[in-house]
Every structure is written in structure tokens, then in C-alpha cells.
Specification:
Structural class: alpha+beta
Bound molecules: iron/sulfur cluster
Helix content: 25-40%
Shape: elongated
Radius of gyration: 23 Å
Strand order of the largest sheet: 4-3-5-2-11-10-12
Strand content: 15-25%
Largest sheet: 7 strands, antiparallel
Length: about 500
């Protein structure tokens, strides 16, 4: 869901952001409540806004009605009033969305998804995870033809393309629209009587299908299924569109359509494994936990931290919470190499961050980091410390964490990262800061320069080759590594990340 420029200078944790999470449900009672839980489990993928749309057939007027509720805020805030879910959003099918946006779009209420329109074939609502790479061209074309846009989101383009299709059948209209768009999309679309799930031909973003009672659910991550006790069936394949309707409920088979005739090489976003997805999810058919442990273990093999003597124990700590699992892998890899290593909790993350006041002579970012993290002195004092992180973006938070660990009395600090240096922007749905702000670029890709900047004894990144060796390939999987290698698998509209129409 492309909306606006990147460059979130307010960001505290200095990590890339996912743009969104999607959820869809068909043929289940309490569809809105199930969607609420599905969104809650996927809160990490977007925290700025949330919304649910339901479709309900009213026997009295014999018509379908769409009902929706969306607002800024976390899922719990948006749906704090129970009656919204229990009385207002009635129906047995629904879609939902968690949105992340950068600051420029924060005040644009129209951009909160799902987007809903009514056109000649009835109601249609859409929720999108990913970025379209040809959205500026398409938007201009549509505007030249007289289309009036309600939002600054690329997702709205899909609805206009559906409405403008010359086909009469709704499924063919959606296929028509999907054949015009390029880039990353994992979509859930709700019509009066169908749920449609579609994934772009490269499959950048995940999209999983599950079963719940007699009905079906679709979600960005499988952790959304666990919370409602749905069982995972499969992924929507790259380039596939699945349609769930009444017939599906009788035959237990969703209708499957190819979006494009030609097959594309998959380009799964490798960052989903490194950082984004929850470790209790299955992504691209594989457990995130398992892959992250592999990443940590491989990092230890590639860049071990040696114990100075047989008696010395290397203390390995994680940056909570995203590098927890990889740290376990590093400890076991480093130990297997003969370096006695112990996993310790040396950094404590507060989940309740208050305001930070700018004070004279005080670095605002340092204050912010201190409100979020504290050290356990007893764990760190006098020790050789290895700190494991999944990625370094600007390096500002990493530097502050190193200072905190040093202040706590660590004897040596060795920084290990379970991904290669990030040097390029992402055009497929992950939000990085401006390339000039990336520490790997500021230091000209020179790891020694980055090490000095961070003030650590040693710094090592997992190499791209080792990263690719650590992720599954058994079923023909291949991955996008654009933000590390600069090798982008599609043509990019160079100013795709800027939207001068942003309100
Ligand atoms: S550029 Fe990086 S973050 Fe973006 S899709 Fe590719 S691997 Fe993922």
C-alpha cells in the first residue's frame, strides 16, 4: 500500500516498517469478531490505523449490505466498543486491514483501509499489503481519463480499474485490473457474495489460507489463524487469485485463477524472515522461528566470537524482541565451534513508552532509547558481550545501545547482525529511511568504518551468500534481496516513493 514519502525521523527503534497486514474471512459466524482477533495478532505489521468491512444479506429487503468501521490507532483502540463488532458489523464474511504509513499520510483518514466503493456490480472493498511499482503511471492515466481519486493510496487504483473493466463478470473484472498492475500485492477483496485473495506473480508478500469451522480465512501471517483456532491449509501461490463463494463451502474447493499467463521467478521478501514476521508464524510455507535460528547459527559459523580461554564464557545478548530467536541460534552455533557461550538477558525493553521532553544539552534520541531500553548491569559487568541484532538501519539506536552496554561495565562488545548491510530502498512494501541516512551508505559500505561509528570491538554482518543459504529452497523458492544487493527484479518508477498528491 504505497502512500507517501519515506523518512520517518520519529522512528524510535530504527527498523524498517512493513506497510500493512490483511485478513479475510468467508462463511463463518461472528466474522467481524474473528477479523478483529486476526488483526490483533498481526498488529506488528501496522499500528497507525485499522478497519473492518463486513458483507451481510438482509432477508427483509433481499439486498447485500456492507458495514464498516475504521479509524486511526491500534486495533484495540479502534474497536474498543464491543457493540461495533457484535451488533454493527454483522455478516458471515469480512475483510480487515492494519495500516502503517509514514508521517505525511498520518492525517489522511481516507487512506485507512479497507477501501470501499459501490459500482455497477454492487459493493466491493479491498485491503492491500505491498506497493505497486507502476502506480504513478496508472494514476496519471486514470486522472487523464477523468477519474477522481478519494485517497492518495495506490490501492484505490485497483478499484478504479475494476470499475472501468469492459468485462461484465465481476471475477473477470478483478482479473482485468490485476493484469494492469505491477509490483507487490497481497490482497483481500470482499464483494457482496465472495471473498477474493490474490498475490502478485513474484509473491513478495506472504498470504496464507486457512480453514475455520465450515468457512475459510486468509491472512498475511499464520499467527492470525492460531488466535482463532483456524488451521493453515496452504499459501496463495504467486500469481494466483482464489475465489471463495457459496459453492466453495459446498465443494470445499476455492476457484483458482492465474493472474498472468507467464510464470515469474518468485521474489519472496527475505526481510520477512529476518525481521518482520512473527516467529510463531509460517511464512512462505516455513516456520519463521526455524529460519531465524538458522540465521543465528550460520552467523556464528561465519563470524564466531572466540572465548579467550577454556574457562571463559562468552555472554550473548539479544536486542529485544526481534532478534530473540536468532540469538538462540548464535549461542548454539558458537558453542559447537568450541566457544563456551551463554544466552543472557542483558537488555530489557519497556513496552510502555511515555513521552520524551526535549531538554537543553540532551540528545533526544538518547533519551528516547533510554525510555525504551535499560541494561541489566549484573549480566554485563566485566564480561565479553556479543550483541545480536537482525539489522542495522540508521545505526542511531545501535550506537545508543552500545553506549548503554558500555556504561553497564562490559569489558568487550562484539556486534553481530543476522543480515547484510542495508544500502538500498525497498519498492515493494517495506519502508526504509532515505538511502543517505542508512549507516552502511554513510560509511560507504565499509564495515570497519561502521564499527568505529558504533564504537564496538568487532562488527560482523551475515553475508548475502550465507543469508541465502539459510532460507528454504526445497520447493523452488527464490528471494528478493534488493535492499542489500541493489538487484531489483522489476523496473522501478524512480520517484515511486514520493507522492506529491499527498494531502
Ligand atoms: S527490497 Fe528488501 S525489504 Fe524490500 S522486498 Fe526486497 S528484500 Fe524485502
Amino acid at each position: 500500500m504505497q502512500m507517501t514519502h519515506r523518512g520517518d525521523t520519529k522512528e524510535l527503534l530504527d527498523k524498517p516498517h512493513e506497510h500493512c497486514a490483511v485478513f479475510g474471512i468467508f462463511g463463518c459466524s461472528h466474522a467481524a469478531q474473528m477479523t478483529y482477533y486476526g488483526l490483533l495478532a498481526q498488529q506488528h505489521r501496522g499500528q497507525e490505523g485499522s478497519g473492518i468491512v463486513t458483507s451481510d444479506y438482509d432477508q427483509t429487503d433481499q439486498k447485500y449490505h456492507f458495514r464498516s468501521h475504521k479509524d486511526f490507532g491500534l486495533v484495540n483502540d479502534v474497536f474498543r466498543n464491543d457493540s461495533i463488532l457484535t451488533e454493527r458489523l454483522i455478516g458471515s464474511s469480512a475483510i480487515g486491514h492494519n495500516r502503517y504509513s509514514t508521517s505525511g499520510a498520518s492525517d489522511n483518514r481516507q487512506n485507512i483501509q479497507p477501501l470501499i466503493v459501490n459500482y455497477r456490480n454492487g459493493n466491493i472493498a479491498i485491503a492491500h499489503n505491498g506497493n505497486l511499482t507502476n502506480f504513478r503511471t496508472l494514476r496519471k492515466q486514470l486522472q487523464d481519463e477523468g477519474t477522481i481519486f478519494q485517497t492518495t493510496s495506490d490501492t484505490e487504483i485497483i478499484l478504479h480499474l475494476v470499475a472501468k473493466s469492459k468485462e461484465t463478470d465481476q471475477i473477470k473484472q478483478v482479473l482485468d485490473a490485476l493484469r494492469c498492475i505491477e509490483g507487490a500485492y497481497s490482497l483481500v477483496i470482499l464483494t457482496n457474495d465472495k471473498l477474493i485473495a490474490a498475490r502478485d506473480p513474484h509473491g513478495w508478500r506472504p498470504l496464507a489460507v486457512g480453514k475455520l469451522d465450515g468457512g475459510y480465512v486468509v491472512a498475511s501471517e499464520t499467527c492470525a489463524f492460531d488466535i482463532i483456532k483456524a488451521s493453515y491449509i496452504c499459501d496463495v501461490r504467486p500469481g494466483e487469485m482464489l475465489v471463495f463463494d457459496r459453492e466453495t463451502l459446498n465443494t470445499s474447493e476455492a476457484k483458482s485463477f492465474r493472474i498472468t499467463k507467464e510464470e515469474h521467478k518468485p521474489c519472496y521478501c527475505i526481510f520477512e524472515y529476518i525481521y518482520f514476521s512473527r516467529p510463531d508464524s509460517k511464512i512462505f510455507g516455513e516456520s519463521v522461528d526455524r529460519v531465524r535460528r538458522n540465521l543465528g547459527e550460520t552467523l556464528a559459523i561465519e563470524h564466531p566470537v572466540r572465548a579467550d580461554s577454556e574457562d571463559e564464557t562468552v555472554i550473548v545478548i539479544n536486542v529485544p524482541d526481534s532478534s530473540n530467536t536468532a540469538t538462540l541460534g548464535f549461542v548454539s552455533g558458537n558453542t559447537e565451534l568450541g566457544n563456551k557461550s551463554k544466552y543472557e538477558i542483558g537488555l530489557i525493553r519497556s513496552h510502555y513508552v511515555g513521552r520524551t521532553f526535549i531538554q537543553p544539552m540532551q540528545d533526544l534520541r538518547e533519551t528516547k532509547v533510554r525510555t525504551k531500553f535499560n541494561t541489566v548491569r549484573e549480566v554485563l559487568k566485566g564480561e565479553k558481550i556479543v550483541i545480536i541484532d537482525d539489522s542495522i538501519v540508521r545505526g542511531t539506536t545501535s550506537k545508543q545501545l552500545v553506549n548503554l552496554i558500555r556504561d553497564a561495565g562490559a569489558r568487550e562488545i562484539h556486534f553481530r547482525v543476522t543480515s547484510p548491510p542495508i544500502r538500498f530502498p525497498c519498492y515493494y512494501g517495506m519502508d526504509f529511511p532515505d538511502p543517505n541516512e542508512l549507516i552502511a551508505n554513510r560509511c560507504h559500505g565499509n564495515v570497519e568504518e561502521i564499527r568505529k561509528d558504533l564504537g564496538v570491538d568487532t562488527l560482523e554482518y551475515l553475508s548475502l551468500d550465507r543469508l541465502l543459504q539459510s532460507v528454504p529452497h526445497e520447493n523452488g523458492e527464490s528471494y528478493c534481496t534488493g535492499c542489500f544487493s541493489g538487484d531489483f527484479p522489476t523496473k522501478i518508477e524512480t520517484d515511486v516513493c514520493k507522492d506529491e498528491n499527498e494531502a
